[in-house]
DNA sequence: TGATGTCGGTGACTTTTGTCACACTGCATG
DNA sequence: CATGCAGTGTGACAAAAGTCACCGACATCA
């Protein structure tokens, strides 16, 4: 039975939720699977649910006019999609792309429940506010980087963030992927990576980069 | 008496608030004045109130490491500062600068009231969510521009936005100010403006720019 | 083992943006 | 009205980033 699985996820990932809220979510949330590479959300799409990630990893990015994929941030188990909350509440369409980068499971909470949850469960309200705050801050960092920093610094920041978020020092990234995430060209990334390698910050290998220190 | 003035502002600028909420705000909000050029909020500052603009104009910008002022958006009468809500709720420090660009009046709502307002007044809750949504969207546009567009396009977008937000075709901006807002140099702006003038999009004058069409 | 495709390296070049230097203009102020 | 200053114009150059062309290394698979 799905309820038991959902219950387990909620207990593990959202322990701060009050018991009544947990029960409410267990009875009304739907579990949904996404394959790696599958889209959770697309620009212009209308959201009907708020999304809580419970397994896997979701990449949020802004799509440029000719299909560029400008990376913003990752969502991990325990995170909610701030945009799905916002769009859900207002019935607005999404402004960003969300893609599962590996096998991912999410809880879908019908938008019709949002009002009630916000009003009746303080821990939910705090969770929502905290979600907004975190994502807002992430966007501010993104803006800082592209507004004030040159490519080399942006690349260094990007690699560091990848190492932190994905919790590994072996970054499974091709130069093309990085270039796409930073909206530049592969050659630029290749050259900058070489400099970083010479400076001893990384070690390059085929298909992955070892992040040192 | 201040209550009467506050009441008038609320009636005029926030007609969508339910009567009980209006009464609550009238009794607990404080009116505060800022001179043009005065800071409402500074990076690292701790917020103790949620801020509603009722008169004037507030400029939100991100501060770079060497004092650059990267423009994000304006707040006008009827708007709330999304960041003051977020920071207020979590007792976090602000990540941006907010500066009054003219004589400005705001309503300050003590953070201690936020929980109660969110829970008890549906129109407040909607207002907050809508505020988040709008500002989130603004940030996404900002990111679009700096991530995907070249200076000329960014400048065109910037001028258009100024004309819209400030509701005038006579933009009281010096080239230096524009350069600072877009985090580039005055010379670049001067040259691009000349191109735009030649293309017939604007007409330059000393100390102001006429935005045509 | 040869064919193919992805990944990465690199030189040469262009374009865009940033920097420096200096000149000009109109306004304000004493 | 002389002086100073903020605002602007502009040429020359430097630096950063983007583009193009092409190469080689490696993996996979028939």
Automatic annotation (TrEMBL), chains A, B:
Quote the CDD domains the UniProt record gives: CAP_ED
All copies of domain HTH crp-type, residue ranges: 149-213
Q: Name one GO cellular component term.
A: cytosol
PROSITE patterns found in the cross-reference section:
CNMP_BINDING_3, HTH_CRP_2
SUPFAM superfamilies listed in its UniProt record: cAMP-binding domain-like, Winged helix' DNA-binding domain
One GO MF term on file is: DNA binding
Output the superkingdom of the source species. Answer: Bacteria
Q: Which Pfam families does the record cross-reference, listed alphabetically?
A: cNMP_binding, HTH_Crp_2
Full protein name: Crp/Fnr family transcriptional regulator
């Amino acid at each position: 039975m799905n309820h038991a699985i959902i219950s387990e996820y909620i207990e593990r990932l959202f322990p701060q939720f009050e018991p009544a809220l947990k029960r409410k979510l267990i009875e009304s949330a739907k579990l949904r699977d996404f394959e790696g590479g599958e889209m959770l959300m697309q620009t212009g799409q209308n959201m009907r649910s708020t999304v809580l990630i419970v397994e896997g990893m979701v990449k949020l990015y802004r799509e440029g006019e000719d299909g560029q994929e400008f990376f913003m941030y990752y969502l991990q188990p325990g995170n909610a999609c701030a945009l799905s909350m916002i769009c859900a509440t207002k019935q607005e369409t999404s402004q960003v792309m969300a893609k599962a980068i590996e096998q991912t499971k999410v809880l879908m909470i019908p938008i019709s429940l949002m009002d009630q949850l916000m009003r009746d469960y303080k821990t939910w309200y705090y969770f929502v506010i905290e979600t907004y705050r975190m994502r807002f801050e992430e966007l501010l960092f993104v803006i800082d980087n592209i507004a004030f920093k040159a490519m080399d610094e942006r690349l260094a920041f990007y690699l560091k963030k990848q190492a932190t978020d994905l919790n590994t020092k072996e970054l499974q990234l091709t130069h093309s992927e990085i270039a796409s995430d930073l909206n530049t060209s592969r050659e630029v990334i290749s050259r900058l990576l070489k400099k970083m390698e010479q400076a001893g910050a990384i070690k390059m290998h085929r298909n992955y980069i070892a992040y040192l220190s």
